[in-house]
Design goal:
Blueprint lengths: L1 H17 L2 E3 L6 E3 L2 H18 L3 H5 L7 H6 L8 H10 L7 E10 L4 E9 L25 E7 L5 E3 L8
Antiparallel strand pairs: 1-2, 3-4, 4-5, 5-6
Length: about 170
């Protein structure tokens, strides 16, 4: 009997994973993953993946955040040339254009605003850790491996990432 229950539980977890439902480990209830949440997650992973694979025009279509810092860092690039600004961010400005290793939804609402806790992958597949910089010790600036990323989606299902990749001065 116990073996049957274990088998059934494993099947439920597998099926939920396949069909867009997740299990909340706190209360073991099944929670339906919304289409909008799935689109937000896809937009986020695609955005960072496009940056990592140097597909800057595609990445620019998924970025809705501010370009101000990139404009300041790259005065010779036209302000409206978003793909060139993202290229400069990844190649010259110290932004770590890495793929998403894992993403956990922290907060989401039916208004299309989602907050994720994201971990990025180094080129070798290991977890990216942003260590202390600029002469600071680990006590003064503890290593960081999780980053908050915001995604905003419209009613039509189009989603934009609002945060640039981690920055390494």
């Amino acid at each position: 009997m116990r073996t049957s229950l274990l088998f059934i539980s494993l099947c439920v977890v597998f099926l939920c994973t396949c069909c867009g439902t997740r299990i909340d480990q706190n209360n073991q209830d099944m929670i339906e993953t919304s289409d909008l949440e799935s689109q937000a997650l896809t937009a986020m992973t695609d955005f960072y993946g496009f940056l990592n694979h140097k597909q800057f025009q595609r990445a620019a279509k998924l970025y809705g955040g501010s370009y101000d810092i990139l404009i300041d860092y790259n005065p010779t690039v036209e302000e409206g040339d978003k793909s060139s600004l993202l290229r400069a961010a990844c190649r010259f400005n110290g932004f770590m254009c890495l793929e998403v290793l894992s993403a956990q939804l922290i907060e989401g609402d039916d208004q299309g605003e989602f907050t994720y806790e994201v971990k990025f992958a180094n080129p070798d597949g290991s977890e990216f850790v942003l260590g202390p910089c600029c002469g600071a010790s680990e006590e003064e600036m503890p290593p960081k491996s999780s980053f908050t990323v915001y995604v905003q989606c419209d009613d039509d299902g189009s989603c934009l990432v609002m945060d640039l990749p981690p920055y390494l001065p």
